[in-house]
Every structure is written in C-alpha cells, then in structure tokens.
Amino acid sequence: MSHEIKSFLTSQGIATSRTTPYNPAGNGQIENYNGEIWKTIQLALRSNTNMKTEQWEGVIQTALHSIRSLLCIATNATPHERMFSHPQRSHNSCSIPTWLAKPVTGSCVFSLTCPLGSLGQN
Prior knowledge:
Number of strands: 2
Order of helices and strands: HHHHEE
Number of helices: 4
C-alpha cells in the first residue's frame, strides 16, 4: 500500500490490516460484511418481482444505498452521515428504498417491510 493511501486512511480514522491471501477465514469481519451485502441483494431481487440471481447487477446500487442508509444505534447516524456529515439521498430524493420501507398511515415514519432476521432466509 502506498504512503499516500496509508496517510489518507489514517487521516480519516480508517484502520487497515494485512491478511493472508486466498484465506477468507483470515478476515472474518469483511466476510461478514460481504454476507450482509449479499443478503440485501437477495432481498432486493426477491422484492423486485422475483428477479433471478444472475440479475444482481440491477439491484446492487439500491442494495448498497439501503445499507449505507441504516441507522447505527451506537452512533445515532448512518455510515453515510458519519463519512460526509449529511444524509444520503437517492436519485428520487428518498432516503430509504421503497422495497425496504413502507409509510405508516398518517405519519412520516417508515417501518421495515420484513424483520432483519429474515434477510438470510431463502
């Protein structure tokens, strides 16, 4: 890793570590995050008139947007807000994808359409 990249990451408070190549178990934290991304993609595919898994590229941007928009209760901010100091908006000015949330009648509050525990179910 170049000195410039190390310097930038350090200035942003981002920690780095070296892992063994071709050994996913050596970096469990990122593998868990990759699993969360894949679960979100699968949910978006199923919610989008049962698209096939091969069509994952069509929903990746929406899936990543939804992950970056989830509120962390420890910091009371989304990952996007912590990085850029303002809320994230999609191309249609919606902060949460429609397949992830539905409006509660008579309110601006959104509720999840499925419990987070069901994201990994097939």
